[in-house]
Amino acid sequence: RALLTSAIGRASKNHMSYMSVDSGPYNSFKLSYKIGNSDASAVISLVPAGKQWLFFDSYKVQYPPFGHITITVPNEVDKIKVNDSEINLSTLKKSPKYDGESYSSEYGYSVYTSATEYRLPVYPGAYHIESAKSSQLWTTNSADASISEKDSSESAVLELEATETLKDELTKAIQKHVDKCVASTETDVPESCRFASFSYYTSYKYDNIKRSVNSTPMLDQVNMSSGTFQSDEVGVDITYRYKDDDDDSDWRDSHTRNSGYVYGKFSIKDNKLVIDFNQD
After folding, report:
1. Please, are residues 127 and 76 in contact by the beta-carbon 8 Å criterion?
2. Strands 115-122, 95-96: parallel, antiparallel or unpaired by DSSP?
3. Which of 71, 65, 66 minimizes the C-alpha distance to 83?
4. Which one is predicted more confidently, 61 or 154?
């Protein structure tokens, strides 16, 4: 019942307004009201609750007009704010939304960020949900939910978002990785450097292999849910010399170009960034 408090509905924009009550049959009442600019209503039934002063019947509301909000929160978040009131998630009943399930892809192995789902009863009203916690490397979006009538439900999903600090760190890691790839003077390069590879014949000899990038590689995409990222297109110029076999004394100069993308995965633990380019 963390959201069934006066503090959650303190602001007039968040709670029921312009209320009117009409009598109905069998100790019931129709409650009409507004949530923001939307009209809504609920039927409330009263049941006997003993006597007052020995003579007068006392009544109580049989079923309060509850709705529900289902909030999905990344496990990195341990506190949220609802209408500016802080809620400690460790005190709430929860059920796993994701359990760290992993998947394989063409470019490597990644692990989904775990998240937890909370289904909370609320009174009709407007609710603004946001994380009460962030770090230098991640923040979250905010979400809004409006419960207008009894038994209605809404969902709110908070998702991790990359900060500029995280994007800068991933960009630096990409550039460092590309520098390492183009520094190779071998015909073969690791799978994570395939943008710097070129076709060659195993029967030929190769020498003086030089690689260079024709533009500064940058971060293009980052996915906080899967913990993966990708660079923009990396173009590489490759020069070398070759000869047909050991008996051929004449070296021939040649050059080619290749391009591709840098793919990697990352994880954040205790606000520390770990990056992996899945090198062979």
Report:
1. no
2. antiparallel
3. 71
4. 154
Helix (H, G, I), strand (E, B) or coil at 164: helix
Residue 60, pLDDT above cutoff 70: no
Higher pLDDT, residue 191 or 15: 191
Q: How many CA atoms lie within 13 A of 80 on its CB side?
A: 32
Query: What topology does CATH give the domain 67-162?
Result: Immunoglobulin-like (2.60.40)
Which residue has 């009943």 as its token pair? 93
* Phi, psi dihedrals of residue 110, rounded to the nearest 5°: -130, 160
67-74 and 219-223 as β-strands: parallel, antiparallel, unpaired? Answer: unpaired
Over the stretch 34-47, which tens digit does the pLDDT of each residue have? 777 777 777 777 66
Question: Any idea where the domains of the chain sit in the sequence?
Answer: 17-61, 67-162, 164-276
Reference 150, options 23, 28, 25; nearest CA is 28
Per residue in 154-203, pLDDT tens? 899 999 999 999 999 999 999 999 999 999 999 999 999 999 999 999 88
Using DSSP, state whether 194 is helix, strand or coil.
helix
